[in-house]
Amino acid sequence: MERIDCLVAGAGPAGMAAAISLARVGARVVVVEKKEIAGNKACGGGLTPRAVRLIRRLKFDAHLGHPVFYLEGNAPPHHYNCFFLKKPALHISRRALFDQSLRDMAQKMGINFVFGTISGASWDGRLFTLKTHCSKALKSPRLIAADGAASRVRRSFGGTIRCHALALMADELKSPGARPRIIFDGGMAPSGYGWVFPYGDGRANAGVYSVADISGGQMRRDLADYLAKRLAEHNPGTITGGAIPWGGYFLPGRVPLILAGDAGGFADPMTGEGIYHALYTGHAAALAALASSPEKARIAYEKSLKSLFANMALLRLICQRAYRLPRQGGRILGLKAVHGPITEGLIRGLNTSAVIGAFPALLLLSLANPSLSHFERRSRLPLDKDI
Ligand SMILES: Cc1cc2nc3c(=O)[nH]c(=O)nc-3n(C[C@H](O)[C@H](O)[C@H](O)COP(=O)(O)OP(=O)(O)OC[C@H]3O[C@@H](n4cnc5c(N)ncnc54)[C@H](O)[C@@H]3O)c2cc1C
Which of 35, 76, 188, 380 is the most exposed place for a label (fewest CB within 10 A)? Predict the structure, then answer.
């Protein structure tokens, strides 16, 4: 078989960002993926402004779904904060379409895919070996593990992720209101929130997210409660979900393995946003992977993620505490001097640390040329006819 410059495990956003970026610089890359066609994943499909900006900067031909300009940041039943924005607050994409669009792009570029479930990986000091259930072992001096939260590759080397949140959701529900709106309801799960993400075609997904240490059973009850209260939905159909890893990874020894996306624990603990970090770390993995030796590649990769690690450390400090007080959070978010700068920062694709650092400048910006066209505080849950 032809020499492989780099193996990529997993064809989610992290794996595709890595493979496409490697192929663009002429590397021979092979992607190993268990599903021949990207199917539905437990995911809200919410693409933040920073994710959309990154996709455009990397010139990825990705399915972005529907832009939504109207957002609520609530703490029911006490605070309902409704934001009307000049730019999209989020794009909501169906996850299967998003993943497949990246795969189609990779396949058009001639990137090789091997379909099979990875059963293990090893490193002999010179080459990585990737074993799958249905093809013979693949070898390469470089390996990027992008095979998701339960990464088989990471576990083969004794690697662990530091923390995880939990999210459960129902999909293809009837969307509330005449105008598509994104809803975040703080406190609908312990140390977490409930969400509704509209696809813009009368359908939506909705779920609950929690950074607390709670059981799947309790999450199911919270979700059923939330769907009944918020969407009057008592038969939501199939419930999907899983762990959302954050806080980075621990990899024992000096194995020069590169971990990207959920495999490396790179989601945002505040919101559970993982697609942006998957694309970002996948791309960073590709830039580092071709360093002069695999060992240097891992060092270069971890160095390139310094600011991401710093942001995660900050979020680790604030998120669990912040979510314990949803009512206070809802009230504070209703203050113009708070939500104005936060909106400006998020719309410009800044992360939490950058929003805190640039707060005074963002405050001035929010007064001079606000991205918010209208803000309303309501004392009760908005009904469909209000919108
Ligand atoms: C309920 C829920 C809602 C979410 N909503 C959002 C949201 O709205 N916005 C957002 O940004 N993030 C959201 N996330 C997080 C987001 O889905 C993940 O962070 C993101 O998918 C990570 O991308 P990835 O490429 O690292 O991993 P994945 O997308 O998990 O991709 C991993 C790939 O590896 C393949 N694979 C896995 N194991 C093997 C194996 N043994 N052999 C071969 N292939 C394998 C899988 O088939 C898959 O294609 C949500 C998560 C959950 C659980």
Answer: 380
